[in-house]
Design goal:
The chain has 372 residues and is α/β, with parallel strands linked by helices. The protein is built from 17 helices and 12 strands. Strand 5, helix 9 and strand 6 form a beta-alpha-beta unit. Helix 4 packs antiparallel against helix 5, helix 10 packs parallel to helix 15 and helix 13 crosses helix 16.
Length: 372
């Protein structure tokens, strides 16, 4: 029988992915597993992705107010999860991204592993075992301690960096690191052209992120203020929410999934400040990866995965103190050739270690192994 005919005769396997948000709506899902789905399907793995929140629920859950709608969206999410338990028999493998439900104990994960007796992959890209809210009531409902148990019940734990792996290996022997990756072929596939500064021309320092990481900008507000006072620069923020606490001038642009590459292309120097805290150490340097994949050099805090992505003096600069930040930003502001050189090296670094194409074979192979 010809090889092509053999492939046709192979039995399709089925993978169920339980995740918090609708497909295509959240960065953690888009860059953790959604962009690998086509490669899984080519390998005869049928993927069903089911979110806790509906598209409607996702639209209201992070808005101010709408309390009754949020309660209804959450109840509907639990109903969706309950219904899926009756269809687990269809699947050869189940993956849970972050958590099957945002609050309460890990009943769904326990059922999958112990009642349905399905092999379980647990995937996460943050230090989600840490309480990360000042609201004690919400913190109790979220029950972050469940991360330990889900790791224990899983056949494999897939994490985004070494800090997360160090935690997971305390509870599971089969832990793999698949970094959060960038699609450098179909999405982040344009390269920033850095040109020599002309008299009076403004250089753009930029930051992109979500409402949850906006507070990190306060850590370097003093350095940014000093740069603004000394030089002709603009500070651009791309986010889902306008900053309320910054006291320095900035240009705000609401993040748009359709235009996000064009939005990033306006930036000459990307920044990624992080506090040296346990939660921040679990971050997967996604902002830095975005900048570098487009040939934009990055200045970042030397925390967690940032140190593996932003190589000091090679793909950008690591800065800790206020003076470090000022010095690094000024070096890049004055030297377009340096911006170009570091940006080019940064893109090569991303393509080699943090791109979809660099990780796809490992990702597919690990999942297929659990389906044998």
């Amino acid at each position: 029988m010809k090889q092509s005919n053999k492939k046709v005769m192979e039995k399709n396997r089925r993978l169920l992915i339980l995740c918090p948000y609708p497909k295509g709506s959240a960065g953690s899902q888009r860059f953790r597993f959604e962009q690998y789905i086509p490669f899984l399907e080519v390998n005869n793995i049928v993927v069903d992705q089911q979110s806790f929140l509906t598209t409607w629920g996702w639209g209201v859950v992070y808005k101010k107010g709408y309390r009754l709608f949020k309660i209804w969206a959450t109840l509907l999410g639990f109903l969706r999860r309950f219904c899926c338990l009756f269809f687990l028999w269809r699947y050869d493998l189940v993956m849970v991204h972050r958590e099957a439900s945002p609050i309460g104990p890990p009943i769904i994960e326990w059922w999958i592993a112990h009642i349905a007796k399905k092999r379980l992959i647990y995937d996460f890209d943050d230090a989600i075992w840490i309480k990360n809210t000042s609201n004690s009531w919400i913190s109790w409902l979220k029950n972050p301690e469940k991360t330990n148990r889900i790791c224990t019940w899983s056949s494999m734990v897939c994490v985004g960096n070494q800090h997360l792996a160090d935690f997971a290996t305390q509870h599971n022997d089969n832990v793999i690191i698949i970094p959060t990756t960038i699609d450098t072929e179909h999405h982040h596939n344009t390269i920033k052209k850095h040109v020599k500064n002309k008299a009076g021309e403004v250089v753009c320092i930029g930051w992109t992120g979500s409402h949850s990481t906006l507070p990190y900008l306060k850590n370097i507000e003093g350095a940014l203020k000093a740069i603004q006072q000394r030089h002709n620069i603009c500070f651009k923020i791309i986010a889902d929410k306008t900053p309320q606490e910054l006291t320095i001038p900035f240009d705000f642009e609401e993040w748009n999934i359709v235009h996000e590459i064009d939005q990033l292309q306006d930036i000459d120097i990307g920044i990624m400040p992080l506090p040296n805290e346990e939660w921040a150490k679990g971050k997967c340097a996604f902002k830095a990866l975005q900048y570098l994949s487009l040939g934009i050099p990055c200045v970042a805090s030397p925390v967690g995965a940032n140190k593996n992505v932003v190589l000091h003096g090679q793909t950008g600069f690591l800065a800790e103190s206020k003076n470090d930040w000022i010095e690094a930003l000024e070096r890049l502001l004055f030297d377009h050739a340096l911006r170009s050189r570091l940006g080019e090296a940064g893109r090569e670094h991303v393509m080699q270690y943090f791109s979809v194409i660099s990780q796809q074979n490992t990702y597919v192979r690990k999942i297929k192994t659990l389906m044998l």
